[in-house]
Amino acid sequence: MFSYCTEPSQLESLRWFSCFLTNGVHLKFYTSFGTVLLLLAITAPVALSFGFIGAVASRSHFPPLSFLGKLYTAMVRGIPDIAFFLFFVIALDQGLEWLRHQALCPDWTDPIRQGANFLVCPEAKLPQSSSPQIWHEIYNSAIAIFTFSIVFGAFASNVLFGAMKAVPYAQIETAHAYGMSNRQTFWRILVPQMWVYALPGLSNLWMILIKATPLLFLLGVEDIVYWAREIGGSKTSAYTYPHPDWRIYYFLGLLVFYLVFTRVSEIALSRLTRKLSHGQATLAGEQQRREA
Amino acid sequence: MNRLILSTAVLALTAGAAMAQDVVRMGTEGAYPPYNFINDSGNPDGFEIELGNELCKRAELTCEWVTNDWDSIIPNLTSGNYDTIMAGMSITDEREEVIDFTQNYYPPTASVYVALDDDADLTGVVAAQVNTIQAGYVAESGATLLEFATGDETIAAVRNGEADAVFADLDFLAPFAAEEADLSIVGEPVPLGGGIGMGLRESDTEMKAKFDAIITEMKADGTLNTMLKKWFGDETQTYE
Questions:
Q1: Which of A1, A99, A212, A233 has a 20 to 30 Å separation from B144 between CA atoms?
Q2: Which residue of A has its CA nearest to B153?
Q3: How far apart, in Å, are the Cα atoms of B240 and each of A7, A264, B171, B197, B209?
Q4: How many other β-carbons are positioned within 10 Å of the β-carbon of residue B101?
Q5: Is residue B12, in this structure, part of any structural domain at all?
Q6: pLDDT by residue for chain B (240 residues), tens digit each?
Q7: How many angstroms separate the CA of residue B40 from the nearest CA in chain A?
Q8: Are A47 and A153 in contact (CB under 8 A)?
């Protein structure tokens, strides 16, 4: 990074640290914070839309659909996250490869399952073994994001289902009395009003989602926990910057990061709650009206 | 999601057409210095990386390094996530049942105990990396085995008193014993395993023969010995 970093063993401590903290692995460590934020930025809206679909399905008057919606919530809510993650990531990967195998290699005669191995034809591999490493990483992250979205979508579905029920029934009746169809009532009356009831549950979910991101490490994505452990571990002179076991400082840094991040989220969410309560027939909305 | 998979497939196809040579994905752990590790620039480095690159150069293959956790390194080879393993993996009968090995590129060397003081109880609690021949040996030696996912954690366990000693390859532990004032090698070295070889899927016989021939060639012309001395010091065992 800096010009004086060529001989780190000769440097005094301040310069040594300035070189150490800007070396290649540290830059990867800093980038991995971006990976985590990107994961959150994609997962949150996707999970919310899964949740919305789940909630609408659960409310459906068509029995099979409402059964599916309720099954989705019950299944994911009842299974430990980690078990679901470990299972679903493998199942999704093998399922996709199996489908591609059926489509691309109809003449393949060897069994796919040979003992502990899952062997599909080379054309069906995802991603292709000849593709660059970056695609392998993107594929792994995409599967992880999808799994996160399914799990958190189920929780969101439950929250939204409850929020839709919490909208005062008089509002719905009035809408019908004005001659609105079911669809119009849903989109114009129910959905705009349900958010304020959903927000406490959703903001709680957002906090849990932030705190669940180290699960990425479990799925083999090189996230901040991976790099903290990797860089913090004691290093011998095989490395350019030998140092003793510093994992405690790196993990401490992660604690601070998560604490700051959740605190900032809390502030942002409480502002949003205030905004959404405006003009609502809730206690908070009523207070705002009196103060005004 | 669909678009992503589609673009991956498209890219893979075009990439495949652009490169005349096959890409061989080389699996390694990246956490076992000086055999293989991620260096300070964030790239794979170490004895096996240098050797692997030389093998690929001589075989005229394009190689790409992939890191994978040690405990799932064999399953991910057999399911085709990469094509070879060069991760300080000793050739053993149990592993031979699942995968194939080339001839060894690192001669059979001793494993040693490292502890905080010289009269540490080697039949007490001994730390070892999971699924290694050393872990197997400790389990049979009568000591209480404490397993960890990485080599680094086994050393941390001795430091914080969780384990009485750590048992691993001499060349992995030697730098720690030499550079850290509190750690030293204790007890007698134990010869284990049949040396370290490159692991391949049992179906890849052609690639195995190719790498076997090049390792023989490198043993004969002395380049392998030069690499061994560079990474493990002049005292290390070499090939005749």
A1: A233
A2: A233
A3: 36, 65, 20, 17, 22
A4: 21
A5: no
A6: 444 444 444 444 444 433 434 788 999 999 898 999 999 888 999 999 999 999 999 999 989 999 888 988 998 888 788 899 999 999 999 999 989 999 999 998 889 999 998 888 888 999 999 999 999 999 999 899 999 999 989 999 998 899 999 999 998 999 888 888 889 999 889 988 889 999 999 888 999 999 999 999 999 999 999 999 999 988 888 888
A7: 6
A8: yes
Q: Could you tell me if B139 and B125 lie in one domain?
A: yes
B14 in a domain, yes or no? no
| Contact B205/A at CB under 8 A | no
Short-list B191, B190, B208, B188, CA closest to B199:
B208
Q: Which helix (H) or strand (E) element contains residue A17? A: helix A13-20
Domain that holds residue B143: 110-191
How many domains is chain A built from? 1
Question: Which residue has tokens 């997962």?
Answer: A43
Sign of the CA dihedral running A43, A44, A48, A51: positive
Overall number of domains in chain B: 2
Structure tokens at A91: 């199942």
Name the residue among A127, A245, A247 with its Cβ closest to that of B12: A127
Same domain? For B169 and B207 the reply is no
Question: A81 lies in which domain range?
Answer: 3-291
What is the spatial distance between Cα B91 and Cα B195, in angstroms, rounded to a whole number? 6
Q: Within this chain, do residues B35 and B137 fall inside the same structural domain, yes or no?
A: no
Q: What's the CATH number where B228 sits? A: 3.40.190.10
Q: Is the pTM of this model over 0.90?
A: no
Kind and range of the H or E element at B24? Answer: strand B23-28
- CATH number at A141 reads 1.10.3720.10
Evaluate whether ipTM surpasses 0.90: no
Contact A139 B75 (CB under 8 A): no
